[in-house]
Amino acid sequence: MLKRIKSEKLFLKAKSYFPGGVNSPVRAFKSVGGVPLFIEKGRGAHIWDADGNKFIDYCGSWGPLITGHAHPAIVKSITGTAAKGSSFGAPTRLENELASLILKNNRYIDRIRFVSSGTEAVMSAIRLARGYTGRTKIIKFEGCYHGHSDGLLVKGGSGLVTLGISSSAGIPEAVAKETLVLPLNDKAALKQAFQKYKKDIACAIIEPVPANNGLLLQSRDFLEYLHDLCASYGAMLIFDEVISGFRIGFTGAAGYYNLQPDIITYGKIIGGGLPVGAYGARAEVMKHIAPDGDVYQAGTLSGNPVAMAAGIAQLTECLKPGFYENLEKKAKRLTDGIIPLLGNAGTVFRIGSIFWIAFTGRKKISSSSEIDPNSMLKFKLLHAALLERGVYLGPSGYEVGFVSSAHTNKDIDNSVRAFKGALEAIKI
Ligand SMILES: *Cc1c(COP(=O)(O)O)cnc(C)c1O
After folding, report:
1. 252-258-261-263 Cα dihedral, nearest 10 degrees
2. Could you say which of 58, 108, 132, 145 is catalytic?
3. What is this structure's pTM?
């Protein structure tokens, strides 16, 4: 049995400080059971917990760590910058540098604004869309996560086109009903929503690679239909690329599908493991943001130099020739290894270096209603059995895994061996 004595002690203490003992709910291990591991350190593809257990990590801090833990170039960039002062509340050269790295290599946006989290990026993008169009309603899709701001913590009621109902306490009904929630991959529902609400719709927001509720890959055809409907009704299309940005290629899903949204949000990878989010659009749209325009958005620590330095170092790695090709090869090596081990019980979905293990047979899944909640019990068993064998997956069956450039073929092969042992042990 995995020794968790120190993690247990730390968790007990943490519960006396924080709700549920954590500062973000999924970390509490509620859906897989047991005590969360308290992480002591990470290097490359590995993490060590407080009890000294070592794991091959496929959570990667939920996405940001595309170059692995403590990448030497990132560490150097952070420490060098921090030594010169950590925040000024005034512009620095580093903001220009990160912006230039991004904008020069991404033809889908030509102005950007840095914020401090994905939630903030999305919240600001929605405000911009509303300010720009002068409309109020927004469309979101069931199974997409866009951070925890009020208007986006909303789920659909029953029926094809419904006004949202809040999925958290503390959200006014008046806010929730400005959000229309539609099923993914459903053209009819989308068309009906636009026909019904027409010029009330400020924007539609989607994770073009939905990766927060399983990996619900959409067809390009559906995304293009969404793009075209938005255009014809004068609504803005927001691609929330907080996960997919810089992950499935440097230009994210916009580049992968070659579709031009009106606004794109980023987070996670962009900050190299430090808190950075961003939103970008064409110049004509971004000029509506203060101080140029009348859509207000600000941040004491926005564009923080240490965070910029981390982002610059990481994105510089991402831009090296062959980076994404190599990453994808490794991810494919992993999933090619795991899929046969699952037999008829499930499969692994993958795009680039994002993968999701699903225990719902071998069929393709593209909307959240197709996920069998009972399958999560199997994930729970797998998660525990993998921990015993030195592999760390994010502690929820609805979460995807990430391969980093720090994973070696040996790490991958060891992981496949661990999966084999784990699956045999739990007899799925
Ligand atoms: C993680 C995520 C967010 C929220 O970002 P935070 O930095 O956690 O606030 C928003 N949208 C998507 C698609 C995400 O994956």
Report:
1. 30
2. 145
3. 0.97
